[in-house]
Amino acid sequence: MTTGKKLLAGASMLATIMATTPAFAAGTPAGTTIQNTVTVDYKISGVSQNAVEASNEFTVDRKVNLTVAESGSSSTTVSPGQSNAVTTFTVTNNTNAAIDMALSATQKSSGQTAKRGGTDSFDLTGLKIYVDDGDGIFENNDDGDGTVEAGEDSLVTYLDQVAADATKIIFVVGNVPLGLAHDSVAGVRLTATSHEASASGSLGSQIAATSGANTSGVDTVLADTDSDGNTASDGVHFAEDDYKVSTAALTVTKTSKIISDPINLTTNPKMIPGAVVQYCIIVANASGAATATDVTISDTLPSETDYLASGDSSIGIKVDGTVDQSGNCNDDGDSGGSHSNGTISATLSDISGGVTRTVRFRVTVD
Predict the structure, then answer these.
(1) pTM, whole model, 2 decimals?
(2) Rounded to whole angstroms, how far apart are CA atoms 356 and 333?
């Protein structure tokens, strides 16, 4: 007896299935029933017999995986006193089913190493979480009516029924305290926790892995990774980013020098009544610091002196002067400023990092 084997036309059938089934990056949706049938053809004494078939089916289980990632590759630059400082994250549902996600925003403890380097040294106040309305730009609902309108992002504590393969843009928003030094850093963490997709408008229970052997129903496997310090297979994922302060670092120095006195004139003058004294106010911005703008000077003169507004020894008020290599005031600058009721007022041009500007004027000793 001759026995023959014949390859089934399964490849053609599989090609047809693949052409009509949508592709999912997260994989085949949980709960999908996968079924196939094998057909065996054979002959006896050269005569074809009725084919023999067998079928099998199984249910696709749920592979829970979610990813939180920071957006961008640098710290969020902020200024002291800034309101609604935003750092941006993405949250992606890599699960092969829709899930809810609880969200929390926390800050690093002082002294901990920040994501981008440096040491955490301050906390933001009023930290909140918003989900983007779709334009990728933070616009909070700050009109106080409690209703999210067109163009406004929603204040949230969780994401409701996030579809498989869907990504949401999340804004973590806080207020920066005043009085912070240049390059101060605050580290922030956004954490997403997987929850069952419950009815719209409520957060489902936290997802747990199915224990024991595979069942006939839809089992759950937690497949999140341990990347960037996360714990693998706990249904939780986080990412971190930094707020970094950019501000001017101004120092102010005030010097005085004797110009003349009524006895010695300009030859070895002394600080006696009638002497002319020059004040110089030095405003320096540290190298690498942010530019200081709208810099104004207000200096109330001692009651024992009088502003020298005119005369041969008067220079008036000179602004935007420079200093020499030793840090002493040069005799330069432009006329500007004003004097009123014993107070000198002046405005300096913008002072960028590494730049020093001066204000000079003269008084007489009573």
Answers:
(1) 0.78
(2) 12
